[in-house]
Amino acid sequence: AQTVTQSQPEMSVQEAETVTLSCTYDTSESDYYLFWYKQPPSRQMILVIRQEAYKQQNATENRFSVNFQKAAKSFSLKISDSQLGDAAMYFCAYRSGREYGNKLVFGAGTILRVKS
Amino acid sequence: GAVVSQHPSWVICKSGTSVKIECRSLDFQATTMFWYRQFPKQSLMLMATSNEGSKATYEQGVEKDKFLINHASLTLSTLTVTSAHPEDSSFYICSARPAGPEAFFGQGTRLTVV
Question: Closest to B43 (Cβ–Cβ): which among A42, A43, A107?
Answer without folding.
Answer: A107
